[in-house]
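Per your request, structure below.
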């Protein structure tokens, strides 16, 4: 099993006999994408998978698996039981908590992910929401619905402090966009001594501005980050150490009026604690794009809170991400065939 976070070479560099290809980001397989994949591995047989992992052909000789974001961990393990030769799984998503399954770990299968594919669209979403809150767009839309003419004073983003939790490619993109608008950026990560720049072995698309942070906290500094921030942006993976990271203790420390923006995973947040902080303070509100249970049930109290903006896990979704996802996979597929190091290799011990 790959334990390092850098690149790695496949075990048997050659054209794989078969590739199992799941739905890509909930989309149907586009003919042009299938053509690009086939061109990268001439002679390989492509097995298409349904949302539940059901294949349209035999899997016994499949050596590569593209996991779409809809495939659950249980379905993945059942699929791997039918595909004993799989040695590399590519996850279309960045989060891999449903990829690092017992079967994947036991067999030491190399896992790569979609790091970098979603950084810009998610950063744009975060900036959109911060500007909407800062310029009081929800209240202005409510006034429009009431046919009321009442000018409202807003604030400028350059006067806000943005606390970013997680300094992967998404966190760095958010920092870059916030920097362009003049916001004060602070951050939190497991290794604060590394700052917020990308590691030397990561080749990322150029950002609008070099990301910077006035201070970088370690993981124990979450309450302090909440206390100093007007917006707290969650951009970190779910691991054993981050489950319910945002709890009563962290929220109680929040600066009065602070907004939480979650563009990562719902399991990072104790939702009962979040509801208390939204109803009674100190939070001013929350933008929630991820929940523990998805789709979010219609009876969820989050829908009815006036200081909450709910979106259906779409912060990543633009008309470019599907093509970028194929770009990443095809590049790695070419590397696999040539026996070159793969990009975006997941550290199994860290969980991302």
């Amino acid at each position: 099993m790959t334990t390092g976070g850098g690149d790695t070479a496949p075990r048997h560099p050659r054209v794989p006999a078969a590739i199992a290809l799941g739905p890509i980001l909930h989309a149907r397989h586009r003919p042009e994408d299938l053509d690009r994949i086939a061109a990268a591995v001439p002679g390989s047989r492509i097995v298409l998978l349904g949302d539940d992992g059901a294949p349209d052909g035999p899997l016994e000789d499949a050596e590569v698996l593209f996991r779409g974001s809809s495939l659950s961990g249980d379905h993945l393990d059942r699929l791997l039981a039918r595909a004993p030769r799989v040695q590399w799984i590519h996850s279309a998503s960045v989060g891999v908590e449903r990829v690092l399954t017992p079967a994947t770990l036991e067999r030491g299968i190399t896992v790569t992910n979609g790091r970098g594919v979603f950084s810009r669209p998610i950063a744009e979403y975060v900036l959109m929401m911060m500007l909407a809150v800062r310029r009081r767009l929800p209240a202005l839309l409510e006034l429009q619905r009431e046919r009321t003419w009442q000018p409202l004073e807003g604030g400028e983003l350059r006067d806000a402090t943005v606390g970013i939790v997680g300094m992967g490619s998404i966190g760095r993109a958010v920092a870059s966009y916030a920097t362009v608008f003049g916001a004060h950026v602070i951050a939190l990560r497991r290794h604060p001594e590394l700052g917020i720049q990308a590691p030397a072995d990561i080749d990322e698309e150029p950002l609008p501005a070099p990301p910077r942070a006035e201070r970088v906290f370690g993981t124990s500094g979450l309450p302090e980050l909440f206390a100093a921030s007007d917006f707290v942006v969650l951009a970190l993976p779910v691991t054993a150490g981050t489950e319910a990271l945002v709890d009563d203790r962290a929220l109680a420390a929040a600066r009065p009026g602070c907004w939480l923006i979650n563009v990562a995973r719902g399991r990072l947040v104790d939702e009962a604690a979040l509801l208390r902080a939204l109803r009674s303070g100190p939070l001013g509100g929350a933008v929630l794009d991820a929940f523990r249970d998805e789709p979010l049930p219609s009876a969820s109290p989050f829908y009815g809170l006036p200081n909450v903006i709910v979106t259906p896990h779409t912060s990543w979704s633009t008309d470019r991400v599907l093509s970028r996802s194929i770009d990443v996979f095809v590049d790695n597929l070419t590397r696999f065939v040539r026996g070159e190091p793969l990009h975006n290799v997941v550290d199994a011990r860290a969980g991302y």
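Residues 1-5 have pLDDT under 50 and may be disordered.

Regards,
D.
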